[in-house]
């Protein structure tokens, strides 16, 4: 007879989860590179950075729809990244679903060791949302304004679930920018 003992609830921060046996980082990365993903720009406004604050942006491919009722989306952020830290404090943010012609936008906000975000936004057309002061990128296939509903730590990332407050289709006729095998791609 199998006996069980009661357990106490622990959080991901309480346990150091060992790496899966038999799966190296390189093997996992290679396998996941075969999954095509849409490319989005996650944006938020940091009101604490300077006299007028600063806009912050991050390219993401780990973004998905979670629920229709209520409308929820999820984005995965690297723990300790500027966007992760900012969205822990700022409840409203935005997502621009990038068109194939916006590869340059995705590339500039994906750079490591990049210049100030203020300079990255300098020549981009954008508007500010009704519900969020975050930039909504012009020419995007769709834009969403979101409010954080939940944050879940998952390994070295935080899954941020946001309630969609507004959705617009500024350029609904274009084709999406995708990411596959480590490169930005287009459909067709």
Question: What does this molecule look like?
Answer:
This protein has helices at residues 25-32, 82-89, 103-110, 117-121, and strands spanning 37-38, 40-46, 54-60, 63-67, 72-78, 92-97, 126-128, 135-137, 142-154, 157-168, 177-180, 183-186. The protein is an alpha+beta fold and 188 residues long. Strands 3-2-6-9-10-5-4 form a 7-stranded antiparallel β-sheet. β11 (177-180) and β12 (183-186) form a beta hairpin. The termini are far apart.
Please write out the topology.
Elements (H helix, E strand, L loop, with lengths): L24 H8 L4 E2 L1 E7 L7 E7 L2 E5 L4 E7 L3 H8 L2 E6 L5 H8 L6 H5 L4 E3 L6 E3 L4 E13 L2 E12 L8 E4 L2 E4 L2
Antiparallel strand pairs: 1-11, 2-3, 2-6, 4-5, 5-10, 6-9, 7-8, 9-10, 11-12
